[in-house]
Amino acid sequence: MNISYSAIKKFLDCPHQWYAQYFLGYKQPYNAAASIGSRVHELIETNGRGTPLETPLEEHEAQRMYKEIVGDVEQLLVGDVHKEEWVSMPFGAHKILAKIDVFIKNNNHIRVIDFKTGKWYNEDPLQLKFYSWLLWKNNPKYTNYKAMLYYLRLNKKYEIELDKDELKRFDKYIMDVIHRMLMYNPNEPQFKIGNYCQWCPYSKECPAIKGGNKNE
Ligand code: SF4
């Protein structure tokens, strides 16, 4: 099994939503905003190149957004810049992995940046901690991290710093979460109702939604 930030987030939101999407094949419907977001990431990675979207209107919107933010983004990308790079580590028969938008190595610290193209601002440090932790596990010599969610449309930045102690604390936390994922028993499903239920592809069949139950 591949264990990514998205999978962890889904599991924490609602364990059975994670199980339905990653093991039962329930897929989220096509989302134009997500497609435009991916294309903007590609434009940043390839300095304005890559494969245009099939829908001209979506491509136009991605190009417009890219041109609007490219100057600000370039100012951040100075030094030993790694763009859209996969970072992974084995975990038994499984693999923990992340494709990180940008990380920049400096003498004794690493800066991590995740670009957000949506309209929502959210100060959730989980993704930043997960990326920093995975980089640290790959290269323990780097013990200081500055990690940022950069909301491109809103021009807002949410930044955290992590040192060795924080990384060790997160190590314990995330290992516990991953163990719970690996031990998940679909015969005893765990449901957790939340706002995300409206986007859950399993919602039409979900007994918790039908019965109005909450199992947290
Ligand atoms: S509808 Fe909500 S409670 Fe049910 S599986 Fe999906 S996320 Fe979980």
CATH architecture: Alpha-Beta Complex
N→C terminal distance: 25 Å
Bound molecules: iron/sulfur cluster
Contiguous low-pLDDT stretches (5 residues minimum) are none
Q: What is the H/E string?
A: EHHHHEEEHEEHH
Concise account of the structure shown:
Helix content is 41%, strand content 23%.
Task: Provide a descriptive summary of the structure in words.
Strands 1, 2, 3, 4, 5 and 6 form a 6-stranded mixed β-sheet that branches. It is globular, with a radius of gyration of 19 Å. The model has no long low-confidence stretch (mean pLDDT 91). Helix 1 packs across helix 2, helix 3 (32-45) packs across helix 4 and helix 5 crosses helix 6 (164-182). It has a single domain, classed as Lambda Exonuclease, Chain A. It starts with a strand and ends in a 5-residue tail after the last helix. It is an alpha/beta fold. It contains 7 helices and 6 strands. Bound molecules: iron/sulfur cluster.
